[in-house]
Predict the 3D structure of the following.
Amino acid sequence: MPFHVVIPARYASTRLPGKPLLEIAGKPMVQWVVEAAARCGAGEIVVATDDERIARAVHDPRRPSEPIAFMTAAHHASGTDRIAEVTARKGWGAATVVVNVQGDEPQIPPEVIDQVAALLESDARAHMATLCTPITSLQEFLDPNVVKVVAADNGDALYFSRAPIPWSRDTAKAGMASQTQFAGAQRHLGIYAYRAEVLQTLTRLPASTLEITEKLEQLRALQAGMRIKVAVAATVPGPGIDTAEDLERIRQNLANRSA
């Protein structure tokens, strides 16, 4: 089944203003994301933005003469809202699979995009799909900026949290600082596949109590009773860009790759 990729990209950013247009090895960050998406099986790639500068900076290398930017309203609170506007105005059918690829992940592997789309397509009862990767250090496990996910044996997400879950009680008898165990913990990756009708439903719902508490939008879907399918990513993506240090590290990495 074909699917589409939508890359939400806004100019404003508290820590890195103009983040989508920051140059990495001669190209704006968001264009690196577009080019990664162009190597997956997506039928259409759309950059959802409210900024003309971003719109002018992007193109699909498969069809360089065709515009791929879609101008959305400026008031959206999240990338999901921006993507929902795209699906509605483009008239994509209710069952159309749409993959949300973050605009600040220039090293996203194309096979991961294909994987999350296929994961949703494989389960007609799932509303959404997402991916995770094993946590590899105690520091990562305890970091509240690292979102964790636990899933049922059938792959359905049970919960997402900034807290260290699952928590081993017996190996942390003196509290948080004494924890030594993180085996089996999974880091959630911020890539999602949705059916178009689910996007519309999800964005009409008010923010849920768990979402407000954890500041995790996917908890709105879980609290509303939606099924989110989770699988371990076939390839571990490179890091996203949240800080100036992240940017410089990835600039060096991609410059070396292009040399």
